[in-house]
Amino acid sequence: MKTARLVLLCLSFWPFNSLADTVPVGIAPPESAPEGCVDTADGNFTIGTLALSAKRKRESASEAVNGTFVLNLQDGVLRDDSGRIGSIVANYQFQFDGPPPQAGAIYTGGFSVCANNSLALGGSTVWYRCTSGNFMNIYDRNVAPQCVAANIIV
């Protein structure tokens, strides 16, 4: 009996449980992309944000992410120039990780580029820029009072 408990205790520390946390690439929201959007883009592109309330000059990709941020889109999966996968993680933040995607990621696919040069996730082109200290995070939903609706412009 002591041996069985020792084996169970050892197995609980074994890295097998990390395999269960692996998130597949390509998990998409149930909604289809908006009309005029495609899930594969020719070549690479950069992104920036545009607050929907202001409709002023968009923030450039370098302003948005403090450096050139080059992306590509293939079959709804968004990757940066380092091969990291664009995803919506457990706190609804849009970020790039991996590969593999961050454990607990909600969506790892379902992205599309629309005719109006906006980035969509599922059926929506609306994102939320949320101030966090002296920078902003981007979310797929409104998570706090300081968030403003925005488009991600490609």
Describe this structure in words.
By secondary structure, this protein is of the alpha+beta class. The chain has one domain (24-153). The chain has three helices and twelve strands; from the N terminus they run ααβββαβββββββββ. It has helices at 2-13, 16-20, 61-65, and strands at residues 37-38, 45-46, 48-51, 70-74, 77-80, 85-88, 94-97, 111-114, 119-121, 127-132, 135-139, 147-153. β10 (127-132) and β11 form a beta hairpin. The radius of gyration is 19 Å and the shape is globular. The relative contact order is 0.21. Keywords: Cell wall, Secreted, Signal.
Q: What number of structural domains do the residues give? A: 1
Question: What are the secondary-structure elements, in order, as H or E?
Answer: HHEEEHEEEEEEEEE
**What percentage of residues falls in helices of 4 or more residues?**
10-25%
Arithmetic mean pLDDT: 81
Kindly name the structural category. Answer: alpha+beta
Biggest beta sheet attributes: 4 strands, antiparallel
| Residue windows where pLDDT falls under 50 for at least 5 positions | 1-19, 55-67
Number of strands: 12
| Proportion in β-strands | 25-35%
Q: Given the C-alpha coordinates, what overall shape results?
A: globular
Question: Strand sequence of the main sheet, in spatial order?
Answer: 3-12-10-11
- Radius of gyration (CA) equals 19 Å
Q: DSSP helix count?
A: 3
**N-C termini distance:** 62 Å
Keywords: Cell wall, Secreted, Signal
Domain Cell wall mannoprotein PIR1-like C-terminal: 76-148
Subcellular location: Secreted, Cell wall
InterPro entries: PIR1-like_C, Yeast_CWMannoprotein_PIR
